[in-house]
Amino acid sequence: MSVPFTSLSPNNPVKDGDVQSLLKGIDVEVDPAHAADFHKLLAAFHECAEVVSQLPDYQPRADTARYPRINIHRPSKREQVLGQAWAHKFHIQGNPAGGALSGKRISLKDCICVAGVPQLLGTDVIPSWTPATDATVVTRVLDAGADILGTSTCENFCNSVSSFTSAQGTVENPFAPGYSAGGSTSGGAALVGAGLVDITLGADQGGSIRVPAAFCGCVGLKPTHGLVPFTGITSGDAVNDHVGPLARTVMEVAACLDAISGYDGIDDRSQGSPKHGSTTFAASLNAQTTNLVGFKVGILTEGFDNPAVDAAVKQAVLSAAHKFQTLGATVEEVSMPGHKLGPYLWTIQQRMAGGLNLMGHAAGRRGLYLTEFEQARLPWTSESFQRCFPATQNVIINSLYLTQKFPGLYSKASNLGRQVRDDYEKLLEEYDVLITPTTPIVAPRNGVRGASPLQAIEPSVGITTNTSVFDVTGQPAMSIPVGFAAAPDDPSVLLPVGMQIVGALWQDAKVLRAGHAWESNFNWKESVPGGKKGAKTRVSSS
């Protein structure tokens, strides 16, 4: 420590007894003979903290001259679609020279930073905060020629896979009003599913790209952990953080992945990724035939043999998986018992790290920390806690409980997560991809804000049973639509079914190849159970 004890400021606020008070919080005591020394050390430490707190922040500068933000505003009631799908509307024109995403209309999940655009994060617990920088993925899609039309609604602090928890309002499923669009990338998935944008960039810490993709009939990819830098995106837990695209086709997802992948010199999650601009995901799909001769597909039994999986969803995904055989692939049932541990391990990791993150205790990573967000979010008060959606309150409660009662459990959960990852990797040495249902059911009815905590959380229970494990392990996983199934409460309402395709670490190309081959040869919209051609399957996008 560089602050000399003899030059401590006379206004130093550290008082006698502060050391003892701090240690009382963890139920330990300082040796009384050493108390005066630790008092001086703490006072010197305070002055060190004061120096750092007064320094100017260091963030990447957004190129607003090249990419000006036009007409930033909250959408009027007349401009809103699908309930409350938009968070903010604006326009940023992409690179006029064009690129792989030229002409594509893009929305951004409202946890992805755009300099000058207030971020709501689906909550009213804190006032909207305005980032000073652009997320790396924002700059990259603009460089690739895409136009950004706005930020799309996300769920409350990104802590739900339902679509009614945002303080800004409910997002409606584009195929049936009243039903969930999934979350937490709810607004973006609904916009893609309704054809109002071509691509949405979402974030996935437990299924938040793949779940809404499945519910809204679009393609959603959670890439290999670290393939795409998470710079400038509000974090849930660095171990689980993934950012990726949702679109109507696998080809669009592949083109977007080419545009956004690669280390950016900031996010340590992506240090092992290929050099930006070096990937050829879309070109490889264009160059390959859609036959899969020599390809091995494993139907993961643990992903289907779960009482939460609806029989109609199970049948639709199994039927879709066996269609790979007609493309020349070998399709076999395989078992990986550790798959069922995934939700348990994810819950421990996400609750402890996610709660610490919410309370401003994120640490241990090299990357861009969003200081404006921390200033807006902290400190927590009883009033702000009470205004949180119950799912966020539950994360904080669980985190505090684990910290006090199971302080070493995060470490063990991380080790066991690595074991599950290694078991998947071993299985994926034999099989090119694994198949599960993305979600165990089709979109449920939307819940109601203001309900009791149990009622508020119930619509999300069990939804991530097949998705969250791959946030723990980091393997690439993509949902593609493969048909329809009837809503459990109304057989006349047909809703999309998602099939999840999983690959080995850094084998995103195989996942994309399998999905592209399937969608190129089969029309998922024709896979209607019982020939219900007259069933309700679409709501107007206007």
From TrEMBL:
It holds the Pfam family Amidase. This is Amidase. GO terms for molecular function: catalytic activity. Residues 84-512 form the Amidase domain. It comes from Coleophoma cylindrospora.
